[in-house]
Amino acid sequence: MLRSALITFVVVTLTLWLMPGVASADIVDTLSLVVLVAVTGAVLRPLLLLGVTALGGWGAMLFGVVAQVAVMVVALDLDPANRISGLPTLVIAAILAVIFAALLDWMVDAGSDDMFVREARRLMRGVRRRAARRAGGPLFTTRRPRPGTEPGLLVVQLDGVAEPVLRWAVRAGNLPVLGQWLRSGSHTVRRWHTGLPSTTPASQAGILHGASRQIPAFRWFEKDSGKVLVANRPRDAAVIERRLSDGRGLLRDGGVSIGNAFGGDAATNLLTVSHAALPGRSARGWAAFMASPYGFTRALVLGVAEVFTELHQARLQRRRNLLPRVSRSGAYLALRPAAMLLRDVNVSLVAEQMARGVPVIYCDLVDYDEVAHHAGPARPESMRQLESLDRMLGVLERLSPEAARRYHLVVLSDHGQSQGATFRQRHGETLDEVVQRLTAETAAAPREPAEEQGKREPDPVPEAAPLLVLSSGNLSLIYLTRCPHRVLRAEIEKTYPRLIAGLAAHPGIGLVVVGDDQGPIAFGPGGSHRLRDGEVSGQDPLLPYGRQARADLLRHQEAAHVGDLVVISSVDPETAEVAAFEELVGSHGGLGGWQTDAMLVHPAAWTVTVDLDGPDAVHRQLVEWLVMLGLRDEVRPGVTAGDAIHAADLDRNSSPRLSPTREG
């Protein structure tokens, strides 16, 4: 109360000083106005929260800002000294006061999340008390709800954080929360291999649904429908999820998906791309965040400051001639504050679901990935975002005593990132221009990165373009659009005799994979590797990509709608840098560098029984932990060839079937 009164006093004094024509500076009048603001807020905010809750979605966002301004307008209008009059002037003064309050709160809270935690605790206690009343408890009580005892699982995904980056940040002391977990022995960290493609949609398809082979890249072309699918476009994500889902996803049986690409068969989906809707009236965490002075309004004001921070950091890179670098203007200026806002909203939604006592929650936090794409995965700007995510883990840890279950926390990433100057920066041309030069045909390609393309309406495939080049980081899929089938090597060489050899010889390209009658072949600048039997001719092109490259490429060739040609850029053997086909200094999607080195942080006492090779393996391990916690019925292992089948092995409640969505 003292802090709130002091901040309000400073805010009101500063606002009145800035308003023209306001001469009174009487301290008693100002103190009375502080009391009036507090009383007005105490009366109006609960009513405004009801309005925000009733609106839900976009209405809650708009009304949340209006609510903060409305409190100040009413308080200033009731001021006995009558220093400000007229509705336009009152509104301007109120807006100034709200902005000053957000900035002052931020300065007081710098390095601390105390106010955010207090607001979240208030939300959680309210949720639990309402649940207790519905269950027959007392209508009013001041008693604090007891911590839950039944187990629950909270999985937090730190998007794009490579395992080596995490270890380095912990050793440097920059991640105090994760560092304390690891040093105390309560948790352990291990690497898991993402395989190909190393993208969020493929990894989440595997982690949440166990079906990563349905996704060959971040974006791809489907010859049967003639459409380009982009996995973060809501309409496309909904189509993809229908293919992934078989009702046995990670979040079935009452789980909640927050901020993910797909739902994992969750009972509740909040800010999930495939469901394309903002949280509605039932999500009190959304309404509480929007209505709170420490929620949306504060994030909006600080988001503007984040834009100026980004402009300053980009200018520093240019002045120091820091290489590699890419442009950090345009749509990216809005991405940074949006990611920050989304992080705070997601944590508020997680807090609400913890109070509701849902059995399993999976939440994706994207701050680090967004910044690392444009600044570089190990640059100071990116590491600051990682530090802020570490603080959010600390917030969740502090909120756990208010939860209706005893939540065990697992932290993982979906992929890493690899740094490097882009393909165009190194060689003065884009990949589609190289294809066009080698074929003398038109090669179409989107100009923006895949993750930005999904934010607008789909592009029609140009009828005059017989070749389509779709890139995701340093992975590119090339389609011969006039052929309705997957085109093999012989047909490609007959149609475009220079294409395969020309791509393989390009200094910026490390691998060109093409189907053949005897299985897929990977071509490089000095040789080839037959993937099925491992036969190498000349210099093995897979050597720079590590020992798992052959298995990764073989699995990728089995993915649905994979390109007629799969191209991966070269990797520097000294620096492990790759050349993204998109204009991103930090990239992922293909092979090379740290982009396939994801991390998994879990309670040290939990046994890992699965070889963590690929996101489907992570899915199986998480399901095993759910079974261990009693949150899922034990899944009987499949019967292998030669084993006897016993009646007890059969599930009498289900009929055998082949899943068309998972097996094609």
Automatic annotation (TrEMBL):
Q: Does the keyword RNA-binding apply?
A: no
Positions with biased composition (Basic and acidic residues):
448-459
What are the boundaries of the signal sequence?
none
Show the stretches that span the lipid bilayer. Answer: 49-75, 87-108
Q: Which UniProt keywords apply?
A: Membrane, Transmembrane, Transmembrane helix
What segment(s) does the record annotate as region Disordered? 441-463
Q: Show the InterPro entries listed in the entry.
A: Alkaline_phosphatase_core_sf, Phosphodiest/P_Trfase
Q: Name one Pfam family in it.
A: Phosphodiest
Q: What is this protein called?
A: Membrane protein
The upper taxonomy is:
Bacteria, Bacillati, Actinomycetota, Actinomycetes, Micromonosporales
